[in-house]
Amino acid sequence: MKKDQLLTRRRALLGGVAALGAAGAAGLLGLGAGGDPAAPAAPAAGAPARRPLKPSTYRLQPLVGHGGPNASRTLVRREPVLRMTGVGRTMVLTFDDGPDRRYTPDILSTLRAYDVRAMFFVCGEMVVDNKDLLAEMAEEGHVVGNHTWSHPLLTELSRGRIRSEMERTSDVIEETYGERPRWFRAPYGAWNRSAFQLGAELGMEPLAWTVDTLDWTEPGTRTIVDQVENGAGPGVVVLSHDAGGDRSQSVRALRDYLPQLLDDGYHITVPRRHQV
Ligand SMILES: [Zn+2]
């Protein structure tokens, strides 16, 4: 790996997360052991009225806005969801940090070839120049989650900044995908109480992952494939990336492990909220 690649903001921060060991790898950072949902989130105080949604041909489901009935039913968790439960040989593939025109269309194409749905945790600032890709995700039944606007380390931000990062991203997802996101993932897997509370206020469940492909280290396509196949199991949520660096290995790996998983009898799908 080239030295300049090691010095990027993303890798510097991820290095810090990795130093925390298994907890960091599982997408948890400095959280208590309690995993039970706490009190329901209060509706967002002073939340602006929902903007009317432009009619769109790709909108598949009724709009669910924050402040609506679903938002008040989202519980505040103390740790993110790591896997699905009670779903047999089912797995979830997730792709973070995009969309990126260089890689996301390839990933969409592979998913289409196998008639598989996946999750894309997008950053708002990436969506702005790639609105058509969000429309394509909606048309093809993929689930789009909120991965903040600019991919900051939330644990270093004020509550107001965290809210802004999350809210702006939900707004641009609504505008381009056709509905507000129901899932949120903290950058670097670095969650804190504000992130859980604000996510719940915005009607989103926090989803981490079970298996990290470590594709951001560009370890080679074969290594990424091995990470997925060795980590495969019922309810497993796989983390990969479609942006944030050279993701050509991630693109090639998917073409290899996706048919393998299907051959092995796995059903690749997107989670319903009662499955977590
Ligand atoms: Zn990320």
Automatic annotation (TrEMBL):
Annotated InterPro entries: Glyco_hydro/deAcase_b/a-brl, NODB_dom, Polysacc_deacetylase_ArnD, TAT_signal
Gene3D superfamilies: Glycoside hydrolase/deacetylase
GO BP terms, alphabetized: carbohydrate metabolic process
Pfam families: Polysacc_deac_1
Entry keyword Hydrolase: yes
Signal peptide region: none
Molecular function via GO: hydrolase activity, acting on carbon-nitrogen (but not peptide) bonds; metal ion binding
Domain of life the protein comes from: Bacteria
Keyword Metal-binding assigned: yes
Keywords carried by this UniProt record: Hydrolase, Metal-binding
Identification of the protein by name: Polysaccharide deacetylase family protein
Species of origin: Streptomyces cadmiisoli
Lineage: Bacteria, Bacillati, Actinomycetota, Actinomycetes, Kitasatosporales
